[in-house]
Amino acid sequence: MELLKIQMQDAGRVASRDGAAVKLSATRLAMNLIATKGITGLYKGYSATLLRDVTFSVVYFPLFARINALGPRKKDGSGEAVFYHSLLSGLAAGAFAAWIVTPCDVVKTRLQLLARGAGETGYTGIPDAFRKIFAQEGLSAFFKGAVCRMAVMAPLFGIAQMVYYVGVAEFLLRIDRSTVR
After folding, report:
1. Is residue 117 within 8 Å of 156, Cβ to Cβ?
2. Is the separation of the CB atoms in 155 and 89 below 8 Å?
3. Which residues does residue 81 pair with via DSSP β-bridges, in sequence order?
4. In the Cβ-directed half-sphere of 140, how many Cα atoms lie within 13 Å?
5. Which site in 16, 39, 47, 53 is 20 to 30 Å from 93, CA atoms measured?
6. 102-120: per-residue pLDDT in tens?
7. Is 134 left (phi over 0), alpha (psi -120 to 50) or beta?
8. Which pLDDT does position 103 carry in this prediction?
9. Helix, strand or coil for residue 73?
10. How would DSSP label each residue in 38-55?
11. Which residues pair with 73 in a beta bridge?
């Protein structure tokens, strides 16, 4: 899905370059990709996606746990953080982790672009992409879109952690939290 998203985002650039207005759907794009590249074409840039997502998790979860452990606790004796501190911890850890992995996201996006124009750089893999981007565009290129990623990921993970600590899922599923621990 990440690959299809990138292609749909890039379709306007490709269409304006070629002078053709082509309306793409995710289904049509997937079918064209399978027809031209086979089923493995859907997995282009998969290793870069894993690099980004695993790195995010490695940074986010320990950082969240550390920040969350520093805050105020509920007075019910459970030792759990109060919901607003879990929200703030998730926001802070999500924003930081998103910023840290932005270079991986930039590389992933570049690797997943299928259509390249004349003179546009192609990449043979993750190390090659890192080298070429740095050589041609400098360090700042790796942080393009960092603030936007932070603006999306921080609230997403902050709300998710707050919901988890409030116990919304357990409530909806009628699970007694005292028996789960």
Report:
1. no
2. no
3. 73
4. 1
5. 47
6. 999 999 999 888 767 777 8
7. alpha
8. 97
9. strand
10. -GGGGGTTHHHHHHHHHH
11. 81
